[in-house]
Amino acid sequence: MSVPTTTPARLVFGREPAVISAAIMAAVALLSGFLTPISPTTQALIQTAVGAVLGLWVLIQVRENVVPGVLTLIQAVLPLAVVAGVDWTTEQQGLIYSSAAVILGLLARPNLNPKVIDGEVVPGSVRDEPLA
């Protein structure tokens, strides 16, 4: 039996995530150049949000536990929402982020029930992380 030495590419809509990111940022540049000016700060925040979404997409394909990826996405999108006009203070943003962490932690917590065979707990069957 041979062990594979290559990892398959993680594609988004059949393309590399970097290509998708570049296409979105090209569209933002065209929009900014021809229709409405978009500040460099807003463009940077858009790029951050796009990177976070694409990173989350790849993370979902690779790992079973996506909570860290979702929290990163929330952390990237909150400043973009504020720049877009949502009137949230830093305290409110912190509350959103911490609440999301607690809720996701409760919803995505792996099953901690031990495996029992013939009335005996199987050693090593209680894990606090998902199996890869």
> Main sheet: which strands, in order across?
1-2
Low-confidence stretches: none
Helix content: 55-70%
**Strand portion, in percent?**
under 5%
Q: On the 0-100 scale, what is the average pLDDT?
A: 78
What is the N-to-C order of secondary-structure elements (H for helix, E for strand)? HHHHEE
Tell how many strands the DSSP assignment holds.
2
Distance between the termini: 21 Å
Tally of individual helices:
4
Number of domain units: 1
Radius of gyration over C-alpha positions, nearest whole angstrom: 20 Å
Explain what the structure shows.
The protein is mainly alpha-helical. The chain has one domain (17-109). The chain contains four helices and two strands; from the N terminus they run ααααββ. The protein has helices at 17-34, 40-62, 67-83, 90-107, and strands at residues 116-117, 120-121. A two-stranded antiparallel ribbon has the order 1-2.
